C-alpha cells in the first residue's frame, strides 16, 4: 500500500514494477475499529497497537497468524494428548481468519466474534492452562503409569484401575474431578503393586528354596564336587536373578512356572550325568550308559507336564478322585516305561 508520493513515483517508473494496482482506500466507521480493538483485547489477551482502521486490522491479522501457529503446535501433540483434537475446528477457523484481508476483520467481526470468544472460554484458555502447568505433568505421570504397569493390573479389582482408564479416555481431562480422582487412584496403586510384587517375589523365591533343598537331597547331587554343584545350580541362580529384577507380577509367575517345568528337570538330569561321569572316572570304566532300561542318560519330566487322559472335568467325589489318580498313575507309568524320570 503506497502513499501519494510513492504511488506517483511508481506510475512514472513502470519498469520498476510488474504492475500497479490502484484502488480507493475503504473508509471504516470508528465503531468497527473500536469493536475490533475490543475483540482483540478479549480474544488475544493483549491490546491492539493499531491507531487507525488499517493498522488495527493488520495487527489483528498478525495476531490470528500467531494464534494459528500456536494451535497447530498443540494439534501436533494430539497423538499423545487425544483430547487436543477438540481444537481442530477452532484452529481451522483461526487459520482462515489469518489469511483474510484486514478489511474483512473490520467488516465481518459479528460473524466470528461470539463463536471465538466462546471457544476461548470453553476450550482455548482451559487447554492452554492445562498444557502449560502442573496439570499436564500430573496427566503425563498418570498415563505413563497406566501404560507401563498394565501387566500388573490383572490381579487388581477393575475398580482400582478405573479412574486411570477414565482419565485416558476423557475428552476433557482439564475439567472436573477426572484428574484428581486418577491421582488418588495412582497413589493407591503404587503402594498396592509394590506390596503385591514383594509378595509374589517372596513366593517365587520360596519355591526355588524348596527345589534347591530337593536337589541337594538327591543321591546324585550329594556325590558332586563343588565345581559340579555350581554347574547344576546355575539355572537356579539365573531364576533368582530374574525374579529379583522383575517389574511385573506375571513375569515372576512365568519364570517360576518355566523353572519348575523345564529348569528343575534339567538340573536333575545334569546332576545325574555328572554323577555318572564321576563314578565312571573313579572306577576306571568309562561309560555313557546311565539308565539300565534304555542304555541312555535319563530324561526328567516335570509331574505337571504329564499328559493325563481322563474324562472328568472336575473332581467332586472320592470315586472321581480314584479315577483321576488312576489316570495320573497310568500316565506316570507310561513315562517310566520309556526310561524317563518324573520330577516333583
Radius of gyration: 39 Å
Q: Overall 3D geometry? A: elongated
Please give the share of residues in helix: 55-70%
Class by helix and strand content?
Answer: mainly alpha
Number of β-strand runs: 2
Unreliable parts: none
Number of helices: 13
N-end to C-end Cα span? 94 Å
The ordered string of helix (H) and strand (E) elements is HHHHHHHHHHHHEHE
Query: What is the mean predicted local confidence, pLDDT?
Result: 89
Give the spatial strand order of the biggest sheet: 1-2
> How can the largest sheet be summarized?
2 strands, parallel
Strand content: under 5%
Describe this entry's structure for a reader.
68% of the residues lie in helices and 2% in strands. By secondary structure, it is mostly helical. The chain has a two-stranded parallel ribbon.
Helices, strands, pairings?
Blueprint: H1 4-12, H2 30-44, H3 53-75, H4 88-98, H5 102-107, H6 109-132, H7 134-148, H8 158-169, H9 178-217, H10 219-222, H11 226-245, H12 249-283, E1 300-302, H13 318-337, E2 341-343
Parallel strand pairs: 1-2
Helix pairs in contact: 2-3, 2-6, 3-4, 6-7, 7-8, 7-9, 8-9, 9-11, 9-12, 11-12
Amino acid at each position: 500500500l503506497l502513499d501519494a508520493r510513492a504511488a506517483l513515483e511508481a506510475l512514472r517508473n513502470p519498469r520498476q514494477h510488474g504492475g500497479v494496482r490502484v484502488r480507493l482506500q475503504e473508509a471504516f466507521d470508528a465503531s468497527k475499529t473500536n469493536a475490533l480493538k475490543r475483540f482483540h483485547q478479549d480474544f488475544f489477551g493483549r491490546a491492539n497497537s493499531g491507531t487507525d482502521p488499517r493498522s488495527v486490522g493488520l495487527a489483528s491479522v498478525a495476531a490470528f497468524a500467531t494464534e494459528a501457529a500456536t494451535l497447530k503446535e498443540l494439534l501436533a501433540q494430539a497423538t499423545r494428548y487425544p483430547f487436543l483434537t477438540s481444537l481442530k475446528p477452532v484452529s481451522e477457523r483461526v487459520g482462515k481468519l489469518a489469511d483474510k484481508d484486514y478489511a474483512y476483520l473490520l467488516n465481518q467481526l459479528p460473524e466470528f466474534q461470539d463463536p471465538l470468544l466462546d471457544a476461548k472460554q470453553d476450550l482455548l484458555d482451559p487447554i492452554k492452562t492445562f498444557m502449560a502447568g502442573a496439570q499436564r505433568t500430573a496427566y503425563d505421570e498418570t498415563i505413563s503409569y497406566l501404560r507401563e504397569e498394565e501387566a500388573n493390573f490383572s490381579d487388581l479389582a477393575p475398580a482400582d484401575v478405573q479412574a486411570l482408564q477414565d482419565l485416558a479416555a476423557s475428552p476433557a481431562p482439564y475439567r472436573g474431578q477426572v484428574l484428581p480422582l486418577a491421582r488418588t487412584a495412582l497413589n493407591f496403586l503404587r503402594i498396592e503393586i509394590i506390596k503385591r510384587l514383594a509378595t509374589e517375589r517372596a513366593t517365587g523365591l520360596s519355591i526355588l528354596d524348596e527345589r534347591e533343598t530337593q536337589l541337594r537331597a538327591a543321591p546324585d547331587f550329594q556325590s558332586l564336587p563343588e565345581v559340579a554343584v555350581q554347574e547344576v545350580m546355575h539355572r537356579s541362580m539365573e531364576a533368582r536373578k530374574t525374579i529379583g529384577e522383575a517389574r511385573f507380577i506375571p513375569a515372576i509367575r512365568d519364570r517360576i512356572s518355566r523353572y519348575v517345568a523345564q529348569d528343575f528337570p534339567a538340573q536333575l538330569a545334569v546332576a545325574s550325568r555328572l554323577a555318572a561321569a564321576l563314578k565312571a572316572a573313579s572306577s576306571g570304566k568309562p561309560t555313557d550308559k546311565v539308565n539300565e532300561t534304555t542304555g541312555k542318560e535319563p530324561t526328567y519330566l516335570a509331574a505337571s507336564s504329564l499328559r493325563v487322559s481322563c474324562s472328568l472335568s472336575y473332581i467332586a467325589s472320592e470315586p472321581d478322585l480314584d479315577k483321576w489318580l488312576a489316570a495320573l498313575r497310568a500316565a506316570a507309568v507310561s513315562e517310566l516305561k520309556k526310561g524317563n524320570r518324573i520330577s516333583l
